[in-house]
Amino acid sequence: MNQLSQWRPDMNDPLPLYQQIEAYIIAKIKSGEWTQGMKLPSQRVLAKQFGVNRSTIVAAMDRLVSAGMLEGNSGGGTRVAGDGEVDDLTLHDSEGIQPSSSPRKHWNDYVEEGMHYPNLPLVQTINRMEFAPHMIRLGTGELSPSLLPEQSMRHLFSEIASSLDTVPLSYEEPLGSLQLRRELCLELGRRGINASPSNVLVVSGALQAFQLISAGLLERQSTILLEKPSYLYSIHAFQSAGVRLAGVPMDAEGLQASALARLKQLRQAVLLYTNPTYHNPTGIVMSEARRTRLMQVCDQIGLPILEDGAYEELWLDHRPPAALKARDTSGQVLYVGTLSKIVSPGLRIGWIVGSERVIERLADIKMQTDYGSSSVSQLMAYHWLHSGYHQRHMEQLREQLRIRRDTMLELLQQDWHDIATWQKPTGGFYIWVTLTGGCSLNKLFDRALSAGILLNVGTLYDRGASRQLRLSYAYAPIEEMKFAMGKLAELIRMQG
Amino acid sequence: MNQLSQWRPDMNDPLPLYQQIEAYIIAKIKSGEWTQGMKLPSQRVLAKQFGVNRSTIVAAMDRLVSAGMLEGNSGGGTRVAGDGEVDDLTLHDSEGIQPSSSPRKHWNDYVEEGMHYPNLPLVQTINRMEFAPHMIRLGTGELSPSLLPEQSMRHLFSEIASSLDTVPLSYEEPLGSLQLRRELCLELGRRGINASPSNVLVVSGALQAFQLISAGLLERQSTILLEKPSYLYSIHAFQSAGVRLAGVPMDAEGLQASALARLKQLRQAVLLYTNPTYHNPTGIVMSEARRTRLMQVCDQIGLPILEDGAYEELWLDHRPPAALKARDTSGQVLYVGTLSKIVSPGLRIGWIVGSERVIERLADIKMQTDYGSSSVSQLMAYHWLHSGYHQRHMEQLREQLRIRRDTMLELLQQDWHDIATWQKPTGGFYIWVTLTGGCSLNKLFDRALSAGILLNVGTLYDRGASRQLRLSYAYAPIEEMKFAMGKLAELIRMQG
Ligand SMILES: Cc1ncc(COP(=O)(O)O)c(C=O)c1O
Ligand SMILES: Cc1ncc(COP(=O)(O)O)c(C=O)c1O
């Protein structure tokens, strides 16, 4: 494999390094130059030869392992598994390197070790750029600061200050504050979901729920099914726990339930993650019929469902069909919710609803992860839901989001009609736009960035979505939105 | 290995099941009945044969692997490695079970899967019992509710309500709120530690710091050195990430720095965790001379230090020697602090101080774990430190803790002088008591529990500490402390 040492990824290519490496290896395998069973050098050696961080190699290899092209083996390093058609690999996360004799170490040497993936380079850029001043964030999955209930929260602070309740400053119970869980059960009831406080675990946002589920309920190397595209592809909550993702195609009614039995069998999948209502990033709402069908299929084939209800309450035109969890009579559905998209992401309050056994196991892991969520956040969340602020806020919020959505649709109609297609969303934050011309998303991202516009490109949510953008009408001020939509149309036309 | 099927752990034995299984396997190996290289049945099969949960088997095996008696191999299951004298094993976390063909699954089936360990059964009991009414908690590592600054926090709420600052409701920056990090740098400065905001990561308590460090900086199967006994043995922050622990003996001046070079070499250790000031559970303060020596040794052998300063500010008689981090000129020390032991555990605010590269890597993992700590907690923590509440509170707190410590010392002198030995702590929460008679800690724990007293037994912190108790003077009301100390002396005498 000495020919390896000739090639290096191009630092100036907008394609991320790990994708260049991935493409390089795919080419070697597909061309037959690298044959099945052939052993690759260790990650460390590869990193050195390619002149990149080890984490970059890990990112590339992992995608190739998921694709069935490489195969890890703790004894003998990584091998070529096949050309990606075969799926039943045995993968191990070790790379078979024996520790050398007691090297001198400094903390900085550890930055590339650790089994947790770094964020995707593009996501790191976005995370950083979100805090750059004067950046217009046209894809951000967050409420604009002007839509956050600052004033009401301030009132809450003074109500708490003058109330006679004790301010909880101790560690909370493993499941979270009881008064909050009671209040959440009422809120869930309004969504058609029956739960008692012992079925609810308070978590620090939905993201932590995924973290706990992957650490607490899944074995390394198991595979979960999910919509393609999906929010989960843009983060590493599951992948860092060694869990693999396998996409289920979607249509206008949501994920294709008919594909599940085959995919489950083929990928030995252990669960289905779905975001059925105002799906991130497509905005699609799973239809009533599809929900019924999905519940049937999953029950028949014994595939547990992880339902993400993050955007559920953000309906703009009419209420969406009831959650899957509202239809669940046998404990087939684990439901995750959050205050992040409807009240405040900063509070970091989310919840998991499931059977007592599952909730207890997750609570145990949660105690070992951070000893529970902030008691002050839990207190604020309780008062927020309890005192009626929430209902009033939701009405105002829907009103504002409706205006924003309609504005963005008008702008699309006006400036983009000949360069893109899209569907009108009925709730949530997003418009999933497909560009009709052949335009490089990476170039567009960079040019938009130079023009002060931060984009969420489709490839974050599906490697194949190379002509899509996730636009969000929730974040940028309307004036900025107008400017940015025009500017962006220009940039796209330039590349055309 | 069919003889296995004869034996089962005794459900009525107070010794936890996993410890019984561990003892059983040790006996088999030590006696030579099971020889090196011999292959054990899979975890699933063992669980069935012993009539226990798979997590119990995992807990037992892992301790045996750490002890060098078993060896995991992803291809061929678990094997007998030796009699515990040899240390350089290659361990893998898989157990070589191939997925069977597409089984029907329900969420409840996953409760025993997942790579994260359950809490130790004893810790689970303690976690649960801490919320039982009328329980006297004589070992709890927390401030009594009466020592928490309820009144001042209430004032803070109204100050925030009437201030003109915006209430932060959005996601925070990856490193945490800048105003809080600035304030923490001032606080660190008072502790002799020089840091700028880019060296500080805000975390949800020190526990989360360990979680992030093990996921972000350490490879699976690496080993860390730590004091023996140690708080880290009672939790699974590192072990669940596949990291092994190797104890360093302590004396009255702290951990024995002279043992480090050999231990590092022998165990291929990657870092040293230490809690040098008011050590949990022994209360020991590492001496000035030992700190100097430790820094020298670690610098020489290239062993990075993870310093836990959780109790540092809780000096009762005189200020302790400066933190290791205050002596660090080369970035050898990563420092962890928390508000939990001095202000409020419920706030879930801690911090990590290190080089920018390390802090950035950890921040990236933090963003992927929970998108940052609660913005409301960060706001409260900032105001708390900034407004001078903290200094006033610390003075009162030390005053109260002094009274409590002296009371507990008097009670020991009065009721325990003939059944135990101990040292007077000069700060922190704990008195580490050694029972002089031959008394079973498990029985004592159960009997105390029946008498309404919750104990933290020594074995939680060191498997070998079978005659020690960690008493805490920080939690129980003084009247309860008096009753419980008398009652406990009685129970010990009964058994002795
Ligand atoms: C579908 C979906 N689920 C979950 C989350 C995570 O939200 P949080 O962790 O803030 O609750 C997001 C945020 O982007 C999301 O879009
Ligand atoms: C030595 C030590 N470090 C860290 C912690 C964790 O504290 P927290 O996660 O609440 O900050 C504790 C709590 O028991 C402790 O004793």
From TrEMBL, chains A, B:
* Domain HTH gntR-type per the UniProt entry, residue ranges: 15-83
Keyword Transferase on entry: yes
Gene3D superfamilies membership? Aspartate Aminotransferase, domain 1, Type I PLP-dependent aspartate aminotransferase-like (Major domain), Winged helix-like DNA-binding domain superfamily/Winged helix DNA-binding domain
| Keyword Transcription regulation in annotation | yes
Keywords on record: Aminotransferase, DNA-binding, Pyridoxal phosphate, Transcription, Transcription regulation, Transferase
A Gene Ontology molecular-function term? DNA binding
Q: Required co-factor?
A: pyridoxal 5'-phosphate
Q: Tell me the PANTHER family matching this sequence.
A: HTH-TYPE TRANSCRIPTIONAL REGULATORY PROTEIN GABR, TRANSCRIPTIONAL REGULATORY PROTEIN
Family per similarity comment: In the C-terminal section; belongs to the class-I pyridoxal-phosphate-dependent aminotransferase family.
This one is known as PLP-dependent aminotransferase family protein
Organism of derivation: Paenibacillus agilis
